[in-house]
């Protein structure tokens, strides 16, 4: 095939797949109109830079969207900001993908579109950036799995800072089921990355087994990211019980009795900070382990 034609294949695939997924998500109420536009850009970018990064983004998007739609009747009774289908807007899309988007652009510039394995001896900066992208989506997926599965479980949540029982929907409330779900969510990201790396990148037999370590690292990042999110949620994000709505709410008011936290960060800000810290920690871990 002529090189002038082949160089257009991946951008064409990126735009086509990105548009299809964003359009479908909008139709199914997973994304609002603004969320679909932001999602189209983010998905197309990840697919264009590399199929490994597209795989972990799509693993996060599809699994989290599916879990968000489970038990909606029960979640409607708990979540004061409940939306059918868990519809996400552009702010939520970018808070869950903005940092990774910057990292994949940096990878594209540094690698000139070539695929590299996790190997800090040959390419420490590239390994650190790839680890950051993995950690980013492990945190996103782990926290989403923890929240969506934990709220449906019969476990009674405890505030992560005091271990006292709190109402479901309280920021910083954790359950055993939720923590296990967070670890599982991270492992799915690690497995998705490894399978695509195994099929698309030649790492050499001497490095192949070591690449498997990305799965336990991702599992740890999923759990760790969820714990970090819960710590910030319990301390810097307000939670109170509204006697009128009979729900846990995120803003103080005359009919709201405080449960925990300060009104410093909202949910999107907590997500962003948690993702940033998990991204950095996973990046450093990959740099030393690989």
What topology emerges from the helices and strands here?
Elements (H helix, E strand, L loop, with lengths): L2 H4 L2 H19 L5 H17 L1 H18 L3 H7 L11 H6 L2 H14 L12 H27 L7 E2 L13 E2 L1 H25 L4 H7 L2 H23 L2 E4 L4 E3 L6 E5 L6 H23 L1
Helix pairs in contact: 2-3, 3-4, 3-7, 4-8, 4-9, 7-8, 8-9, 8-11, 8-12, 9-11, 11-12
Concise overview:
By secondary structure, the protein is mainly alpha-helical. It is built from 12 helices and 5 strands. Residues 1-5 have low confidence and may be disordered.
Describe the structure.
With 290 residues, this protein is mainly alpha-helical. It is 66% helix and 6% strand. The protein has twelve helices and five strands. The strands form two sheets. The protein has a three-stranded antiparallel β-sheet with strand order 4-3-5, with no helix packed on it. Helix 3 (33-49) packs antiparallel against helix 4 and helix 4 (51-68) runs parallel beside helix 8. The longest helix has 27 residues, at 124-150. 46% of the residues are buried. Residues 1-5 have low confidence and may be disordered.
